[in-house]
Write a structure and sequence with these properties.
8 helices; Dihydrodipicolinate Reductase, domain 2; Rossmann fold; 2 domains; alpha/beta; 5-stranded mixed beta sheet
Amino acid sequence: MGTAVVEAVSAADDMRVACGIDPHATGAGAFPVFASVEEALAGAAFDVMVDFTQPSVVEGNVERALRAGVDCVVGTTGLSRDTLERLAEQATDGACLFFAPNFTTGAVLMMQFAKAAAPFFPEAEVVEYHHCNKKDAPSGTAMLTAELIADAREGRRSAAPGRETELAGAEGARGALVEGVPVHAVRSNGFVASQEVIFGSMGQTLTIRHDSWDRTSYMPGVLLGVRSVGDLHGLVVGLESLMDV
């Protein structure tokens, strides 16, 4: 993702890569690369930090940047809403923390379609598919999708059999319950990022699916976030807030 972001920003006419942050980088390149956010803040001037790292380090990265007044565009999942709000409160000089669990426009539309369908179907389940190196499960997109479905249902819960039907030794067969919505995570070579939302009612099913086969699919959303974050303040969550959908 880092390489894809660098290529997308470099190809844009209205922005440039000021520096990179990579503790494992070796050799010189087209722009300076620092081992840490602290070193980058001391050695380069930049307006926006884009973070697609890992759940174990993203919180520290964002906290340091926001305290320095640098806007942040974050696609690393694994942070709770409470943590995001706490980080945003530490921002200085009107800096913004823009977080999106998914930067593909198609995935955002999939979630909005699921939200629209949820009140009309008593049953809903989310199945997400990612490459085997993904660091978190379920994905942030799946979590947010389940939350949107639950909100749209206004408290109504599924009547389908749940965890009480799981056999001994096969606990988890019905998936993780997120706001009452079963979520299933598949990890395998052959996937980049895919998700389907399966709705059911008497005599019918509705499946909404989105597939991302290449990381370039995220780049229009990332660039939209970078271009927009300077006009925003505090915590802003979701690419849909910039897409007016």
